[in-house]
Amino acid sequence: MVAERLTELERRGRLAERRDVVIGVKVRRPGETWFTSNIADMSLTGFRLHSFMKLTVGSELWIMLPGFEGRRARVQWVRAHESGCTFERPLHPAIFDYIIQRSLSGR
After folding, report:
1. What is the count of structural domains for the chain?
2. Within a domain: residue 1?
3. DSSP state, residue 7
4. Using CA atoms, how far apart are residues 24 and 50, in angstroms rounded to an integer?
5. Position 3 in a domain
6. Where does the PilZ domain lie (predicted)?
7. In tens digits, what is the pLDDT along the chain, a chain of 107 residues?
8. Which domain holds residue 86?
9. Cβ 41 vs Cβ 50: under 8 Å
10. pTM of this prediction exceeds 0.85
């Protein structure tokens, strides 16, 4: 089953399995101020950002997950007010689990 899952992830061009979450975060472009936004479909390697901030593919941004310092990410795709982003460094699994649990308890 794991092999089937990896094949499915690879087929969709994903680096890691994503979890359905809705999390309030702080986001900023380099040199700008933080503002509040939401992320969804989070994985160890990235997330989908809902934002009215104008982003372009390849641009850098900083994201502050609840309870953690800001971390760098890069925009991979943009569609209307959504952007797919990858973390500069993958999240530690314990941080990922904490964020997922926090999201589930907030629903």
Report:
1. 1
2. no
3. H
4. 10
5. no
6. 14-91
7. 434 444 444 444 545 577 888 899 999 999 999 999 999 889 999 999 999 888 999 999 999 999 899 999 999 999 989 999 999 999 999 999 999 888 887 64
8. 18-105
9. no
10. no
